[in-house]
Amino acid sequence: MPSNVEFHIPFPGAVSPDAAAADAHLVRWALAQELLTPEQAGYFAAMRLGTCAAYVYPGARGEDLCLAADHMALCSFVNDLVGSTGGVRAESAADVCRDLLALFEHDEPSHPATPVGAAWCGLWERLRDGMPEAWRRRVRREHTAVFGAYLDHRVHRTMPTADQYLRRRYVTTGLPLGLAVAERAEHWHAPEWFLDTPRARALLEEATKLAILPNDVFAVEREENRGEVDNMVLVLEAAGRTRDEAVAEIRAMVRHAGERFRRLSDRLPAHYDDLGLGPADRTAADTYVRGMRHMFRGNYDWMITGTARYDRRAASLAVASGYEDAPAATNG
C-alpha cells in the first residue's frame, strides 16, 4: 500500500491521553456486542480504533472517549460490511442497514433484528444521555442520511465520476455526525444557527476532502483487491489517469482543500462582525470549526502512526478471520 505518500495537512494535531485504555475497552465491547468473533479480535485490536477516537476527539477522557470509540467502531464495522463483495458478510449488509434505518426513527429504539441493531440500541441510550432534544433529532437524522447512503451504495455499486464520488462522500463520511458525537464526548454544544449556513457547509466540504482523500491513497490496493469502486484513486484511473498521476492529483486536491479551509477559517471573525454576534456565539462557532480540524487532522495522524487498516501483513489476518472478504479475483 502506498503508505509512504505524504500529505500537507496545515493544522497541528492533538490526542487524548486515554488512547490505550480506549483501545482495550473497544475490543471487549465489540466482542460483548457480538460484532466480532474471537478469531477476528486480533485484527480488530490492531486497527486501533480507540486510538483513532483519541486523535479525532482529543478533548474526550475516560468513559466519554470509550463511548466515542464505540460509536466509531459500530460505524466502521457497518462501513466494512457494506464494502463486502461476497460471502456471508455481503449477504447481511443490506439487512443490517435496513435494521438500523428502522431503529433510527425512534428516540427509544426497540426490537432490533440484528446484533448490530442491538448494539445500536444500547449505544444510543448512552449517547443521548443528558443531550437536548434538538441534538437527538439532529443526530438521528444524520445517522439516517449516512446509513441510507450506505444501503444505496450496497444495492447500486457503480463507478462514479469524481464529482459524483465527492458528493456521495460528503454524506457517507458523516463529518456532521462525528461532530455531534464530539459535542457529547467533549461536552460542548454546536451553534444550531451556524450548522446550515453557507460558510459552515463550505468548511465541511473542504474538511471532508481532507478526511477522505489520504485514506483513499493509503487504502487503494486493499480496496481494489476487494472489488470496491468507492475510492478516488480508482475513480481517477477509470477516467484515464495512471496510478502515479491519480496519487499526484489527489495530493494536490488535499493541499488545495487545506488552503481553502484555512482561508475560510481566517474570514470567520469578519463574518461574525457582519452578523453582529456576541462572544458566546463566536466561541461556539469557533469550537465547531476546531472540531472539524480535529476530525481530519486526527484521522490523518491515526493513519500514519500505525494501524493495521493499511498494513499489507494484516490484510491476510483480516481475510483469514472472516472480518474482510478474500480478494475479488478469488471469489467464486
Structure, described:
It is built from 16 helices and no strands. By secondary structure, the protein is mostly helical. The chain has helices spanning 19-32, 41-47, 49-56, 62-82, 87-103, 115-127, 133-155, 162-172, 175-186, 192-195, 198-225, 232-238, 243-266, 268-275, 279-304, 312-320.
Task: Describe the secondary-structure layout.
Layout: H1 19-32, H2 41-47, H3 49-56, H4 62-82, H5 87-103, H6 115-127, H7 133-155, H8 162-172, H9 175-186, H10 192-195, H11 198-225, H12 232-238, H13 243-266, H14 268-275, H15 279-304, H16 312-320
Helix pairs in contact: 1-3, 1-4, 3-4, 3-15, 4-6, 4-9, 5-6, 5-7, 7-9, 9-15, 11-13, 11-15, 12-13
Taking the sheet with the most strands, its summary is: none
Tell me the series of helices and strands, N- to C-terminal: HHHHHHHHHHHHHHHH
The dominant shape is globular
How many angstroms does the end-to-end distance come to? 25 Å
**Average pLDDT taken over every residue:** 92
Helix tally equals: 16
- Going by helix content, strand content and strand pairing, the class is mainly alpha
Enumerate the spans where pLDDT stays under 50 for 5 or more consecutive residues.
Answer: none
Helicity level, as a percent range?
Answer: 55-70%
Radius of gyration from CA coordinates? 19 Å
Approximate strand percentage: under 5%
Number of strands: 0
Q: Can you describe this structure in just a few lines?
A:
By secondary structure, the chain is mainly alpha-helical. It contains 16 helices and no strands.
Brief descriptors of the model:
globular, mainly alpha, 332 residues, 16 helices
